[in-house]
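**User:** You know discrete backbone vocabularies at least as well as I do. Would you mind producing a protein record, from residues through to fold? Write it directly below this note and I will take it from there.

**Assistant:**
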Amino acid sequence: MLYVNKNLFTSEDIAQVQRHISQMLPKIQITGHIIAAALRDPVEIIALVKEVIHAEGSILLMNGDTPKEQAVQSAQEAGCRVLFHGSLQEGSYPLTGRTQNDIPSLLQFSSGTTGKPKVIRRSWHHVEREIAHYNEALQSDSAEQPIVLVPVSHSFGLITGVLSAIERGAVPTVVTDKNPKFAAHLIQNTPTSIVYAVPYLFHILQSITKNSISFHKAVSSGAPLTGALFEKMKNCTQHVYQQYGCSELGCIAIGEDPVSHTDVGTPLKHLKVEVDGSEKEPGEIIAYMDDYSVHTRDAGWNNAEGRLQLAGRLDDLINVTGLKVIPYEIEQVLFGVDGVEEAVVYKSRHKVWGEAVKAMVVASPHISPEMLKQHCMERLPNYKVPSSIDVVKEIPKTAAGKISRKLLAEQY
């Protein structure tokens, strides 16, 4: 069972959608093939995932707002047999791809924040292992009610938000209502909720409720919480969790009650993580599952207690005259200014220094770029002080609600 906004869907409701799918697409057309889906309805997505697993096939999940032409092209390139776009009621679109997939898998595109998105494949067996070890680490039970504010077309929402909850007997609520006041009201009226969201959404919820919202448990993923938001979340949440993962492995680590905004806890039991770095010089995080290794291109270190700390992307490090600058360090200084709501630091080209530091900030009307720069000069070495700071109404984000420093560096 699950809710979508206020509507309850029973196991039989989902099974009925599965039967409808099997009538449109017999098992023989799924087994050994890749089915593409860019659907908006969470119930249709979950039913299609269940039917594909049952038929020993693979599924490529895309965001439900993906334009049809782009979805067709992406599905075609991935070797998919058919595409479901928009809604199951529109039927399936046949494709020329006939790739035989020996290992039934979940396929998704990487975020694309550091280059062209690529197809990532994870076997259903690996997904099952993730769910089992994730639930062991989360230590939740069926009485707690997950509220999923992120799309179930993404593994954060689908696997750790919905499928893990169903596995432990909980009844998740998937929120598709775009009005954040609906989510805020739902959270306030669900005393045993576990809220799954990205930092930006937690920030929105704090803003519209004027910091009066309270959470039972909150699970944040997609990027580390900022220092200011982390402190706010600690003050209004019984238990804060930071979750860290990648497309290739799903959830890698989760940390209950992190000691800082960089703290993402300890790896799930089926994974091993190595990182050769320190707070001053973060190193690359490398994750291992059995004989498979993933060089994440994320920068971090282990603290004295052995908990993994996340500093951001290695590609985001800024080289100023040979000196390395970590964006999150400067962002925390900017968040130290009362009235700063959002801040991002990124690189730009400089004809003398090679690279320079830039910043984009959302702040109260009384805050000026000059005030922010002076604040940084009093707290940072000269080479870390942003050469320019833009105060804007909104920081551009990707379709998934993430800030891409790479895109900012290219466009600004």
